[in-house]
Amino acid sequence: MNGNSLLKYLPPYKGTVTVLKKHQNTDDIIEGILSANNKYAKDYSQISSFFIGSTPRQTCKNIWKFLKQNVNYKIESENRQTIKTPAAIIATGKTTGSDCKNLSLFTAGILQDLKRKGIQNIPFVFRFSSYKFFNNIPEHVFIVAFPGTNKEIWIDAVLYEFDYKKNYTYKIDKKPMLVGISGIGAVKKQTLLKKGAKVVLKVAAAPARTAFLLLVGLNFANLAVKLSAADQKDAAALKIWWERLGGQIQKLLNQINRGKVKKRILGIDENNFSIGIVDPGTQTAIAAATPILVAVGTFLKSVGIDPEALKQIAADAANKKAKQIVEKIATKVDKKFMLKNQQVEEVEETGKKMNYLPIIIGAGVIVYLITRKK
User: Fold this and answer.
1) Total structural domains in the chain?
2) What is the Cα–Cα distance from 298 to 216, expressed in whole angstroms?
3) pLDDT (0 to 100) of residue 316
4) 71 and 197 share one domain
5) List of the chain residues with pLDDT < 70
6) Are 265 and 224 in contact (CB under 8 A)?
C-alpha cells in the first residue's frame, strides 16, 4: 500500500494549509490538534480499513509503517505551525513532509475511526513530551495505545523503530474527543446498494465473501478484470460496496491484482452453458458465493461496467444450489415427485420460457414435511 493508492479515496488535495496561529503557545497547539482530530474524521473514515491488522498491535504497526514509507519527517518552525488534512499529509509526504503533530493526527484519525465503526477498539492518547531537564514544556507529540497499562504501544513515526520507547523527562496525555460522523462518502454513493441488495447483505457472510475472493483471484468470469476497471473508474464506490458486504477492501484489492493477470475461466454446470472447465472446488465456491455474484453484477452495472454473464451465472448457481438442498432433505417419495414434475419445469408461454423451479421446490418441501418420520 502506498500513498498514491490512498489518495483516490480522499477529497482532492488543493494545496491549502491551515495555520494554527501566528503567535501560538503550547496550549494553542494542543487545542488545535484535538480539534483537528474531529474535524477530519469523515476523511479518515474513507481509508481506515486499509490499516486493519489481525491484532491491535499489527494495526498500530501498519499505520506506523505506512507513515515511515510515505511521509518524510519535517520539523516546523515555532512561528508557523500547521494542521493538515489526511490528503495533505499523504500528498506532501515526499516533498515538504510533515511534522510530529500531523503524523500523530494521521495515526489518531485511523484508530479513532476503527473504534467508531466497532472494528477494533484501541484506546489511545496524544502524548506530549519533553526531553529537557527542568523544562516541562512539550516539544514532541506521538500516539500511545493502551495508555497507562503494561501493554502500552508507542506509535511514533519520527523514530526508526516501531514501539520504541524513548525516555522523556516530562509528559502530558490528552484523550481524543470522540464524535460521530454521518455516513461514508457522498449521497450518490450511499444509494448504490438499495432495493434488493439489502437482502443480499444479510446472507453475504464470511463464507460467501471467502468464496467470492477465491473466484476473483482465479479471474472467474473475468471478475478480477471487471473489478479492476471499477477500481480505476470509481475506487470509493468499490470500497463502499465491498465494506457494506462486511469485507476488507485491501483483501479484495489483493485478489483483484492476483487475478487480473490470469486468463479468465467461466463455467458452472454440465449443460454447456459454461465456457472452459471448472474443477469441483471452484464449483463449490461459485455456489457459496452466489449472493455476492448477484450483488456484484448490479454494482458493476451501476458504475457503467458491463457485468457480462455474471447475472446468468449467479442465477444458474442459485437454481442448482436450491435443487441440491431439496434433494438432500427429500425422501424417496419426494424425489419421485420432483423427477415427475421436472418435465414441466420449463414451458413455453407467449414465446418465453417460464421457470417452475420455485413451485417444484416448494411442493417438494411440503411433501417432505408431511411424509417425514416424526
Assistant:
1) 2
2) 16
3) 63
4) no
5) 16-29, 177-205, 266-281, 309, 311-374
6) no
Give CB contacts under 8 A, 24+ apart, made by 215-218. 215/282, 215/285, 215/286, 215/289, 215/293, 216/252, 216/255, 216/256, 216/258, 216/259, 217/255, 217/258, 217/259, 218/259, 218/262, 218/265, 218/282
pLDDT the model gives residue 18: 63
Q: Among candidates 162, 172, 5, 39, which has minimal Cα distance to 112?
A: 39
Cβ-in-10-Å burial (0-12, 13-18, 19+) of 144 comes to buried
pLDDT of residue 265: 76
Same-domain check for residues 210 and 146 = no
**91: Cβ–Cβ under 8 A, 6 or more apart, which residues?**
3, 7, 13
Calpha distance 66→115 (Å, rounded): 19
**CA 61 to CA 185: how far, in whole Å?**
27
Distance (Å, whole) CA 219 – CA 264: 5
Nearest C-alpha neighbor of 146 from the set 175, 123, 163: 123
27-37 burial code (b ≥16 CB/10 A, e <16): eebbebbbebb
Cα separation of 205 and 291, whole Å?
A: 9
Burial letters for 6-21: b for 16+ Cβ neighbours within 10 Å, e otherwise? Answer: bbebbeebeeeeeebe
**140 plus 217 within the same structural domain:** no
Which pLDDT score, from 0 to 100, does residue 19 have?
61
Q: How far apart are CA 309 and CA 287, in angstroms?
A: 15
Residue 204, pLDDT score: 43
Q: Identify the CATH number of the domain in which residue 72 sits.
A: 3.10.620
The DSSP letter of residue 275 is: B
